[in-house]
Specification:
With about 550 residues, the chain is an alpha/beta fold. Helices cover about 30% and strands about 25% of the residues. Helix 1 (about 10-25) runs parallel beside helix 8 (about 295-310) and helix 6 packs across helix 16 (about 530-545).
Length: about 550
Amino acid sequence: MSLRVVIVGGVAGGMSTATRLRRLDETATITVIERSGHVSYANCGLPYFVGGVIEDEHDLLLQTPEGLFDRFRLDVRVDTEVVDIDARNHKVTTRSTVDGRTGSIGYDKLVLSPGAVAVRPPIPGFERVRVLRTVEDAERLAADVTGRPRSAVIIGAGFIGLETAENLARNSIAVTVVEAVDQVLTPLDPELAILVAAELTSHGVVVETGVAVAEVTESGITLADGRAIPGELVVGSIGVRPDVRLAEMAGLALSAKGGIAVNEVNLTSDGDIYAVGDAVEKEDWVGGGGSLIALANIANRQGRRVADHICGLPTCARPSLGTAIVKVFDLTAATTGWNEKRLLAAGRRYRAIHSHPMSHASYYPGAQPMSCKLLFDPDDGAILGAQAVGKEGVDKRIDVIATAITGGITADELADLELAYAPPFSSAKDPVNMLGYMAENVRTGACDVVEYDELGALAEAGWTVIDVRTDREHAQGAIPGSLSLPLDQLREDLDGAKGPFVVYCEVGQRGHTATSLLHELGIDARNLDGGYRTWIAADAARQQRPNRLVDMAL
C-alpha cells in the first residue's frame, strides 16, 4: 500500500515538501490543501506587483495545480481549508471556500505549512486597513493604486512596509510611514537604520517614528499624540505571528514563543505530524533556544528535510541566522545574526566595529560607499552578527559573513578569506577582509577603540577629542568641542600635549594611524570606531532626524 501524505499549506514549505517527496517516492499519494486560490507563488514579490514593477500577475505564480499534477502527479486542492484534524484516526476534514462542500482525507503522515498571519491590533477603525500577505491581498491593493489615491499611510516600518512605501511613492502617492518604536527596520541598530530613514526622506516619504497609531479614520489615521495624518489608503505592516490554528486543532504542543514546537527533524509532539515554515519555532544560531524567523529560504530547507525524513533518509536541522535583505529606493540594507540591541538585552559580551568602505576600488568609476557593522565575541572571536547599508555590494558582503558564521570562521579570520578581486567588483582588501583586520586589531589590543556612545563620558572625564582630518573637513562638520589637528601635521602640532586623546577622522582609518603614532610617542589615545560618519549617524538616530543625513554620502 502506498504511503499517504497530506500537506496543509503550499507556497515555500509545503510545496518544497511535496515536490521533494515525489522525487524520492513515485508511489506515494500526495495531497496538498491550500485555502487560498494559489498554491505556489512568489510572496516576496507582492509589493513590486502592487507598484507595477512586476506588471503581469502571472509572473508571481510559480506553479499551478494543473502543472503540478502533470509533472509530479500531486493532488492539489486550492480554495480548500482544513476545518478539523483527527490525529488519533489520522484524518483531516476539509471544506471548500467556494461552495462550502466538506470532505475527509486519511493520511499516514501529515505536514502542516500554514505560514503566518498579519498582526491586526485592536486599533479602532483597523478593519479598513489593507495587509499584504497573499496574491489576493496584492490584487486588492493594486486595484486601490489604480484608483490613484493621493495619499497613503504605512503602519509599520519593517521589510514589507518599506518595500510597500517605495512602490506606492513611485506611483506619485504621498506616503507617510508610521512606526511605534524609535527607528525603522528594527533588525538594524539605530546608527544604520537612520540611513534607511534618510533614504526614505530623500524620496519624499514622511517618516514618523516613536509614535503609535491611536485610530484609523475614513481620511487617514490619528496618532497617539493627537496629530492627524491623511491617508486615502492605509496599509498595515505591523508584523506577523505564527498561524497555529491547525496545531491547536490537532492538539499539538506549542513553543514558549507561540510557534509550533518541533524537534530536529521538524516532527511535532505527534509522531506522524510534521510542521514547517513561518508557523514553526526555529533554533537560533547565535544564542541557541527558540526563535520565530519568517523567511522563505528556511521554509524551503525545512520542507526538503521533512521529505527526506519521511522517506528514511538521514537528515539534520541547522540553526537559523535570520539573514535578510531589503531594497529601499536606491539603498540596500542587510543583516545576519544578532544586532547590538539583542546582545545587550541578553547580557552577552561583545565588541562592535564600524567601517565605511567603497563597494569596489575607489579609482574605478561607479564605486559607492557602504556602512558596515560587525559584532563579535571579544574572547574567542566568534561572529555574532553583521549589518550593512549601501547602494551597491551590500548583498555579497552580508552573504559572505553569513557563510563565515555557518562555517565557524572567526572575526579575525575574515582577514584571510580569499575573495574575488578586480577593480569593477571589489578592492584588493575587500570590505569583509577589512572588518577582519579591524577585529584583529581590537582583539589583540593593537587598536583601542571608543564607541560613539562612550564619547560623552570620556570628554567629561578629561579626555580631549581631536579631529585628524583636514581643516577643511573639520570646518564642514565636526564633533562639537573637538580640536582640529590634521594627521599630516600631528607630530609638529602636539606642542607637548600629554593627552589623553580620543582621535577621530571621517571613517576611522586615519584615526587608527594617528592613534598608533600617539602611542609611539607615549601619549594615551583611543580611536573613535567608525569615525565621524558613524558618530553623525548615531547622533541623528538619537534625535530622530533622518533629514540631517539626506545631503550626506553614506
